[in-house]
Inverse folding.
């Protein structure tokens, strides 16, 4: 097989935030495509259920804890090298205007969306620089533009995107691809519920009157990007539902 062919048989991926939503959908799709997958998240019971369903491996870890990330990488790399890391873990807290946003929420969002991805990327990068690999960052349209109430999340997602943009420059000439997928409105089990502290009515309103994207829609984009031939780097892909033209312009029925 030429080095330019799509060689994704027996490739191995690590997926963070794998207990739910886009992360879990990505594990399922990668497994369906024949990838070996290590799923990571905090919730063990969800990881074991996903492993029973898909045959993935799993390591429970809290990516906000540096020692957990070290243990994750050591455990995964003891079984062999990794071809792709999907930095999917993250999330939003609240929809507070900047004028009243709680700095503690901003800090938590920075930890979850930025520093977790940084730590995980740093842990797997040395092996990738030696033998090749892909670092994928699941950011958001919030990484590309602001919206009222989005301040803390928008700031964190912009910062996460900057990790990708900077790494791509720092690693040019090396066999590492740096990919960003930036979704708009995706109806998942937990993103909006977490954002609104479990308020289901508020969460449901985010998706009301439109056909939102699904976790599976984004998993398709992500796996497609990873399965491009090695010379093709999908720098950044913005994906929105047809009914969403910008972060704030949404046509609801
Ligand atoms: C999720 C999309 O519009 O809530 O990342 O920021 S949005």
């Amino acid at each position: 097989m030429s080095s330019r062919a799509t060689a994704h048989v027996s490739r191995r991926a690590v997926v963070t935030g794998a207990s739910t939503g886009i992360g879990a959908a990505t594990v399922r799709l990668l497994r369906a495509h024949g990838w070996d997958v290590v799923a990571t998240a905090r919730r063990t019971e969800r990881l074991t259920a996903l492993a029973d369903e898909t045959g993935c491996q799993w390591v429970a870890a809290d990516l906000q804890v540096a020692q957990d990330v070290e243990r994750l990488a050591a455990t995964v790399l003891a079984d062999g090298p990794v071809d792709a890391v999907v930095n999917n873990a993250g999330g939003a807290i609240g929809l507070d205007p900047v004028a009243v946003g709680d700095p503690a929420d901003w800090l938590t969002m920075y930890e979850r969306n930025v520093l977790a991805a940084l730590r995980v990327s740093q842990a797997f990068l040395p092996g990738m620089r030696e033998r090749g690999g892909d670092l994928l960052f699941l950011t958001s349209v919030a990484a590309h533009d602001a919206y009222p109430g989005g301040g803390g999340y928008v700031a964190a997602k912009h910062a996460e995107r900057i990790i990708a943009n900077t790494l791509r420059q720092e690693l040019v000439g090396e066999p590492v691809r740096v990919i960003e997928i930036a979704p708009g409105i995706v109806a998942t089990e937990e993103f909006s519920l977490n954002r609104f502290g479990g308020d289901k009515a508020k969460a449901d309103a985010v998706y009301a009157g439109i056909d939102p994207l699904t976790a599976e829609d984004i998993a398709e984009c992500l796996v497609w990007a990873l399965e491009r031939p090695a010379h093709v780097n999908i720098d950044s892909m913005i994906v929105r539902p047809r009914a969403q033209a910008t972060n704030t312009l949404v046509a609801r029925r």
Observations:
- The first strand starts at residue 12 and ends at 16.
- Strands lie at 12-16, 36-41, 57-60, 84-87, 133-138, 176-183, 186-187, 213-214, 236-239.
- Residues 140-142, 150, 153, 184-185, 247 surround 2-hydroxyethylsulfonic acid (CB under 6 Å).
